[in-house]
Amino acid sequence: MLNKYARGFFTALFTPLASWLIRRRVSPDAVTIIGTLGVMIGGLVFYPLGQLFWGTIFIVLFIFSDVIDGIMARQQERKGKWGAFLDSTLDRFADGALFAGVSIWFFTGGNNDAIGITALICLVLGMLVSYIRAKAESLGFDANVGLAERAERLVFLLTATGLVGLGVPEMVLLIVLVLLCLASCVTIVQRMGTVRRQATTEVLGKDT
User: Fold this and answer.
1) What percentage of the chain carries pLDDT values higher than 70?
2) Where along the chain is Mg(2+) 2 bound (predicted)?
């Protein structure tokens, strides 16, 4: 949902930076890798140490690499499949690091098992959401629908985690994670239903 409405804004915002990087002979792949490493450091180093606010700030500095590398690839007219594969694969590393980092902290120094467990459930459901789309596309279907896509999950997680780092009650983060779990479940159903309808239509089309 956020991809649909915010992509134009962020494309315009980061196009000058993308152009500057191209002039410096930086490749889109390098931006993808560096961005992912930055997010993973924030998630697996800052968060487990309890630095929820500064960890979020650090992550935000790198999270938009996912937009910048796409702009660079389009400007350079790169149409190969490698970039898309690398981007999608490293996104899973980044997502895993964020939810795992939150979970680690609240299982240890944060002393809030409810948040730790819910973060792990969000991690598993988020991977399922991404897997369903990837599998659908590999079979020739379109599953780019849903209430809680990657952008929504990251925005709500980072916002709630950063606010808790500033002193907002932990219950806020727990509520956000529970809502993300529910939204992810809805998204899974939506994507499976969408693929089911396409598969049924395909079979009926072959029978006529």
Assistant:
1) 95
2) 66, 87, 91
143 appears as a binding residue in the annotation = no
Q: Is 32 annotated as a binding residue?
A: yes
Does residue 100 have a known ligand-binding role? no
| Cα dist from 14 to 20, 63, 90, whole Å | 10, 12, 20
| Alpha-carbon gap, residue 115 to 188, rounded angstroms | 22
| Residue 185, number of CB atoms within 10 A of its CB | 16
- Check residue 45 and report its DSSP letter: I
Question: What tokens appear for 208 in the block?
Answer: 């006529």
Q: Is residue 91 annotated as a catalytic residue, yes or no?
A: yes
- The set of long-range contacts for 99-104, using a CB threshold of 8 Å and a minimum separation of 24, is 99/43, 99/123, 99/126, 99/157, 100/43, 100/44, 101/42, 101/43, 101/44, 101/45, 101/46, 101/47, 101/48, 101/55, 102/43, 102/47, 102/157, 102/161, 102/173, 104/44, 104/47, 104/48
| Residues 151, 72, 94, 83, Cα dihedral to 10° | 110
pLDDT, average across residues 26-42: 94
Report pTM. 0.88
Return d(Cα 160, Cα 185) in angstroms, integer.
Answer: 20
Longest dimension (CA), the chain: 63
- The residue type of 147 is L
pLDDT reading at 108 higher than 90: yes
